[in-house]
Every structure is written in C-alpha cells, then in structure tokens.
Amino acid sequence: MPDFSLPSSPSFFSAGTSNGNYMVILPAGSLHPIHDVSTVVAGEMCIPKPVSNAADPNIPMVILASSTDSPQSKTTTIDNKSSLPTPSITTEKEMLDRLEQAVDLWDMDEHEQAFPILKELANEHPQAVFMLGEYWEQKQDEKLAYEYYLQAAKQGHTDAQNAVGICFKVGYGVEQDSKSARHWFHMAALQNNANAQYTLAKYFAEDKNEGKYAKWLQKAANGGQTDAQVEIADNYEQGQYGFEQNHKTAFAWYEQAAFQNNAKAHFMLGWYYCYGKGAVAIDKGLAMTHFLKAAALGFQKAYCPLGL
C-alpha cells in the first residue's frame, strides 16, 4: 500500500477517478474507506476541492485535484473495505519550525522536553534521528544510540556517519570493526565533515601514507577542525610528514586554532611572540597574554614560562 505521509519536499499521491487524479484528505487527519475510488497513482501538485464523504457524511473531505489529467504509469488498487494509512499533515515549514524548537530545547539542556518532538519528527528529518541517538547516548544506552546514529547515517547525515564511525572504532553499541569504522569516516569525510576528515588523516598517518595524510589533514584544517589546525601547524613548524618547514605558515595556523581557544595553539603563539620566530616581531606582552590563556585552558607547559 502506498505511503501517504508527506515528505519534506512536496511529493503527493492522488487517487484516480473518472474525473481526473485526486487525493482524498480528511481534516481530522485520518482516511476512511473511499467507495468511489479504485486506484491510487502518483500525482502532480494538487489544488483543494471540498466534497461530501460517502463513508461518513458527518466528516467532510477535501479532494486535492491534480493539475494534470494524465495518471502516472504505476497504480495500486485500493481495497475499499480497509482503512488507509494516516497521512502526515505537517508542512515542511511546520516540520522545520518544530525541529528548531527541539534544537533550542536541547541546547538549553531541556532534553526531556525535546525528546517527544524528536520522536514526532523521526520520520521527517535525519537531524531528529541523529539527536535521538545523542539522547540515548546521554542515557548510556549504547545499543539504541548506535541504532539511531546508523539510521541517520544511512540517510546521509554527516555527523551521524562520523558517530557511526566512532561506534565501530571503539565498539560502542556494536562490535568493534576498524574496516567499518574507516568506511563511515570516509563517507562523512566526502561530505566535508571536518572531524571525520581529521580521523581519516590519522588513519593514513598510521598507514605511512603521507600523501593522503596531508590531503585529509589539510581539508580538516580548512574545515575548522582545531586539532587538525594545530597538527598542520606543528608539521610546518617541524618540517615533517611531507610539509616543508615554514614558520610563517605555522604561525598562521596556530592563530586559526587559537581563535577557537585551543590551549596548545595559545602556548605556541606565546613562544612565537616571546622569541620572534619566523616573521613575528618580539612582543613580551602578547607572549604573556597567550601563555596565560593556555594556562587557563589547562595546558601544563604554559606554567613554566609564567614561572608557576
């Protein structure tokens, strides 16, 4: 039987009659047996048309008349004696508004209030499915968390794909499997998920494949992954793993990571300003500022130049 739920992008089913292609919707949100309709076909964009309900005169019906009289090639016979599935009457805007509401609640740590909304939207948007995975991970239900992550990952959600990669990597809710982990990290990396790109770079570093390591590390750093930015800066600082030594470039990457409050990046900027490395002018005040920030973020080595 056809699925009458409305997806996020408009795609309607209609019921064919001698008067054209129609889809019958009850305002109450439920469908009753339709006695004068013999087939259901995929239709075009539709316009509303009120009609009487032969099954129950007390419940009005609206027929959505197709903009075309040409039915699609595939039809499915309706059993007039059986009830049809309940259609979703949620428009894309309403669905996105509900999802935004759930995200706002989640960000305010109101997870229990967000949960029923996420369940409601689980068939509408992969972000809701992914967040259900986060919900069950928070509840320490590894199996359910993995299952929701996998469901969202199969729908192309990049954060979910990265999460499934982590699940396979560490054996969270599923048997540990390095090959499957790399597969899902690669899937997410191809969709520009910076965290997955960085993890993939680390795999290639283990493989001693400097070319692919440099490629994915660069992509992750360009995508704003702070650990990747620090690592690429370290490589330029030391002139290693295929990166030609360049203190100016290293400094630029440390700056990028420091903007995102990376502790080691602040520490390295402190050294650059302290000793005037590369093209950076010595500035003891800026050096102290960065050492203090690194120390405040818990970077132990920053205590030494501060005399602590």
What labels describe this entry?
6-stranded antiparallel sheet, Serine Threonine Protein Phosphatase 5, Tetratricopeptide repeat, 6 strands, 10% strand, 308 residues, disordered N terminus, alpha+beta, globular
Could you describe the 3D structure shown?
With about 300 residues, the protein is α+β, with helices and mostly antiparallel strands. It folds into 3 domains: about 15-75, no CATH class; about 90-190, Alpha Horseshoe (Serine Threonine Protein Phosphatase 5, Tetratricopeptide repeat); about 225-305, Tetratricopeptide repeat domain (Serine Threonine Protein Phosphatase 5, Tetratricopeptide repeat), CATH 1.25.40.10. The protein is about 50% helix and about 10% strand. It has helices at about 90-105, 110-120, 125-140, 140-155, 160-170, 180-190, 195-205, 210-220, 225-240, 245-260, 265-275, 285-295, and strands at about 15, 20-25, 40, 45-50, 60-65, 75. Strands 4-5-2-1-3-6 form a 6-stranded antiparallel beta sheet, with no helix packed on it. Strand 1 and strand 2 (about 20-25) form a beta hairpin. The longest helix has 16 residues, at about 90-105. It is globular and about 60 Å long. It starts with 12 loop residues before the first strand and ends in a 12-residue tail after the last helix.
Outline the fold blueprint:
Blueprint: E1 13-17, E2 20-25, E3 39-42, E4 46-51, E5 61-66, E6 75-77, H1 92-107, H2 111-120, H3 126-138, H4 142-154, H5 158-170, H6 178-190, H7 194-206, H8 210-222, H9 226-238, H10 247-259, H11 263-275, H12 284-296
Antiparallel strand pairs: 1-2, 1-3, 2-5, 3-6, 4-5
Helix pairs in contact: 1-2, 2-3, 3-4, 4-5, 5-6, 6-7, 7-8, 8-9, 9-10, 10-11, 11-12
